[in-house]
Amino acid sequence: MSFPVYILSKLQGCSMRPLAPEALGGAHALWQRDVRLLPAFEPCRNEVYEGYATSGGPGCGAVFICDGVGSSLDAAHALHAAGELPVWTSVLAVSQQSGRGQMRRQWVSPAGNIYAALRFPAASNYPDSLSSLVAGYVFARAFEMCGIDVRMKWPNDLLLDDCKMAGILLEDRNGALLVGIGINVAHFPRADCLREGAAVPACGLAARGFDFAPFELWRQLVDRAFFCYRNEVLRFSEDGLISRLEAYLAWVGRVVMIHGSDLGSCPGRLMGLSHDGALRVLLSGREQVLHSCSLSPIS
């Protein structure tokens, strides 16, 4: 294991529940499995945080594990403010007190799932408006490399068999682009617990027969997302990138129900993406571009 791993008990500028290596395995049976795979930790302390660390100093690919934090994004912003969050470094929360999703909706966060925040590279060969889709794409590819076939629900969900398995939220603050991602590993909300009008039902990996522990899966996903970004995203032309994003977009070519646009709720055929990442839909025989809406499949 060449990357450093940190378990945080304190972090400047961020409230959290103190965590120690011996307590990590008690959070959930899946975390107990993770602990058995991690190398030995030694106490560590600097001006920014206290906790425990494996060998190696902070650097690209490091993972900070914490618990009882408001959200993994809060911890990531605090680490960035202190200069401790290089690109591709991430925070993995065992649980969250006030996780957030699209439209600032609260995300229920029991131990056993993945609640992570990753510092993502700033857009380079693509416009900023594509960043959310690019993040969704590299994680969709990463899941695919782990044997899990997912598709992107525009603009920020990952679907497994048309059920929401993960949600993605981007926050750009003080020069750092952070990707917050919640992945249903051990738990997922029942239909009666979803917000009214939810476009699709939820699902979890364990319930679908996939056997992963949170840290084990997160480390694999980050490694593969980095590979895809470097070897695929950065090598695509603008047209090539749009085409690749469309290949992983759910329901392309299908008639879907469109909600929340200026058109109200109406059916339309999903055609693909515009060059700024908006949706191209066919409505009454005419293609239109939508920058804000929600989609749901029509059976």
From TrEMBL:
Cited Pfam families: BPL_LplA_LipB (PF03099)
BPL/LPL catalytic domain segment(s): 89-185
Keywords: Ligase
Keyword Glycoprotein included in the entry's annotation: no
PANTHER family in the cross-refs: BIOTIN PROTEIN LIGASE, BIOTIN--PROTEIN LIGASE
Organism of provenance: Oleidesulfovibrio alaskensis (strain ATCC BAA-1058 / DSM 17464 / G20) (Desulfovibrio alaskensis)
GO CC list: cytoplasm
Protein name per UniProt: Biotin/acetyl-CoA-carboxylase ligase
GO molecular function: biotin--[biotin carboxyl-carrier protein] ligase activity
